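User: Second chain of the day. Same drill as before.
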Amino acid sequence: MSEQLAQLTFDAAGVGICGIDADGTAVVANPAVAELTGWPIEHVVGRNAHDLLHRPPNSDPDDRPRQGCPILEVSRGGPTTRDDSDVFWRRDGSPLPVWWVAAPVVLPESAAGAVTAIVVFGDASERRERSRSADARLAEAESGRSTAELQRDVAERQAMVARDEVEVAQAETARLAVLARLSDLLNSLDILSGLDRVAELVVDTGLADACVIDRVTADGGVARVSLVASGLPGPAAASELHRLPSPSGTSSRSLAQVLNGADTVVVDLSAPSRGRPYADELDEVQARLFDVLGASRAMVTALAARGRVLGAMTWVRRDPRAEVSSPDLLMLRLFALRIGQWMDNLRLNDLQQAAALTLQRSLLTALPQPGGLEILGRYLPAGEGVEIGGDWYDAVLAPDGFTVVAIGDVSGHDMAAATRMAQLRSMLRFAVLRSPLDPAGVLREVDEAMPTLGVGGSATVVLGTLTVDPSAAVDERHTLIWSNAGHLPPLVLPPGGPPRLLTRPADLLLGVDPMAPRHEHRVALAPGSTLVLYTDGLVERRDETLQAGLDRLVEAARDAAGRPLTQLCDALLTVLVPAAGTDDDVAVLAVRLPADGAEGR
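Assistant: Same format as last time:
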């Protein structure tokens, strides 16, 4: 539950509300708790509820032990418990006559910690004073009645007052529980399924007989995206989900008013409206919807955030006797506030992810194709709903004709990570042009420059240079010189031989310690060999070890080794990447040497 939502909820309550964990420690409390007890909120949170409420300040703990406290029993999984005549203790040591209700409830940890019970309480002295005044008036008005009759009436009135106050406490507890469930539902990154679950919650908890949610589309139109109604079959509800006519300035219907900036609108539909002309198409669509739902009353409010209307939510009631109360409107607005914030966060996240993905793909430029060499790159973004990663690959033809290849993964999954990736790639390119035969020196130079140039975070990189010695034997003519900064080992597929991982010890990641030593490795590559560089998204899975993923890579490479380079890369992605995608992006860079031993520089 957002801080703003919690504050609105607590401020609206005229009783003390305190959430406690399984140990009885207060996790969250509303301002009324401070007003009733005299303890500031920061003193309430973190203290045991029994010690705070049931024990006088500075008293001996042995006088009132925690064992057997009915409130603590509820926090440990006990049933809902209430007491109409108890005593709490104020900060100044004075007793506070109270009524209270403690109910078990589970709130999401992101909202209010590990809350297991909600305690709602109020000042019973006010109730007693009202009862005494009522008793006096009753006695004066009915002085001729017997004492027994008067006592019976007084007891009935006191019981009625007590029941009313307990019902208020229970309603507050139930409202908090529903709002907590709402926050839990809105952890979803899928806006359509999230809105469906919200509508189901509204109907399942009896807040309304039907819930309708409309969403403003990217082009400024309006689409009906969710409709849940008790007693309405799924196909009938689905038939109402469609793009709506745009509201006109003349439309008088509640939906148009809300989308055009009006506050919450309450509509009384119990009176017949046949024959009334429609202002526009949207007016007619809304009238037909209310007829289908059998609506007697409707409450419509905007789903908005940052001054932008993102949609509208309508709660429908069918019983013409069911009046719309202030608590009803409060719950509608609290729902709308939370949903609007969630929708806006998803909208901003989508914009950021689109920008980051565009930046990342713009860096994966066309790869050079030096004579005799074939170079191919593949990039797959992470699965739907997962933030963009920092994976990249590159190939550069140095001035002396050497081919330099690189692949890396920048820490982070956001626009900042994509920006760092662009900076790091540019730094490596610049350094490579000056020292193409010294990959370890290039990584060292970049590592030292990162703090100076303000490039934060860390990154794994494999940087390699392919050299050719025409005077060497054919099987030793091509050499890979590489340095590894915390990345996964390169894979080599020799023609006619088994694939092998170049498992030399990897050095420290870039961005951790500029003074860390960098090492260089060399390996001769036979004509027709294929070098494959890849990022962790290709092989790492949450349910298996890294070695298991590397073994799968070697096996998949063995099966596809003889295929053309394009088919080889496609086969690796098909075999190793699940059809549903992964929770990390994937980059692959493959280089195939000429089979006839040509220079291929």
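Residues 360 and 418 are 6 Å apart (CA to CA).

User: Great, on to the next one.
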